[in-house]
Hints:
Elements: E1 11-15, H1 22-29, E2 36-38, H2 48-57, H3 60-71, E3 76-80, H4 86-97, E4 102-107, H5 111-124, H6 148-171, E5 177-180, H7 181-185, H8 189-203, H9 211-221, H10 236-243
Parallel strand pairs: 1-3, 1-4, 2-3, 4-5
Helix pairs in contact: 3-4, 4-6, 6-10, 8-9
Amino acid sequence: MTRNNQQDKPFIIWTMQRTGGTNFTKNLIQMTGLSVHHEPFNRPREYGGLSAHWEEHRDTDELDLRIGEILDTPQIIKHCVEMVPWRISAVLAQEAAKRDYNHLFLVRGSSLQRLLSMEYARRTRVWGPSHQRPDEATDSAFDAPLDVEVLFKHEANGVNRLNKFWQMLKKNKKTPVSISFETIYDEPIDVAENKITAVLSRLLLTPDTPIEDLITLMRDKGNQKTRDRYGRFKGIEVLDKRLGELPAYNFV
């Protein structure tokens, strides 16, 4: 990928865990000359101490100052909104809006698939291809039925947060852009090409590979090969029905 320092701009990827865009994110990062921080406000990652300090002391002025100082160094941050206190994300949006940051909202159109992926990873500790184990080694992960209400509330919380942070950025005269996992990996190539081109334009990124070839490359390498196991969970139909009551993404 091309690295053009005149075009390099910092950006934040607003998302939730197990959305499925790791390979897409990796390709975006390769187009920049900036450092990247994956979920840095989670404990015990780079800025996780800040989250811990906020929960203990609730010092708003210090939180604003510290996050502002972090963002003064242009960087890329992948931020999962459901993993940290609300105030951390709100200040991140507030302080980024004062600086020259762009914003990408990466979501999963199928909440069911995201939640099953999350639950599978949580129960088996298989977070990616490097952690894979034989099927029989994960059999016990499917013994307990899905906790439908807990999973529903988790998803609703994440959707509501992403919607609110989008609106917060818009009120601060920022123009975020969104894309879904399904667009990147499942839609016809021409649909994915148009949307990814719009994302790259908004983030001021220039690939040195034709977009169609980039999509083909991502789709070839983006499968963690665990989705076929999720059907063994008990209670999928009940969860799927409950998820029909979720709020919609409101990215306008």
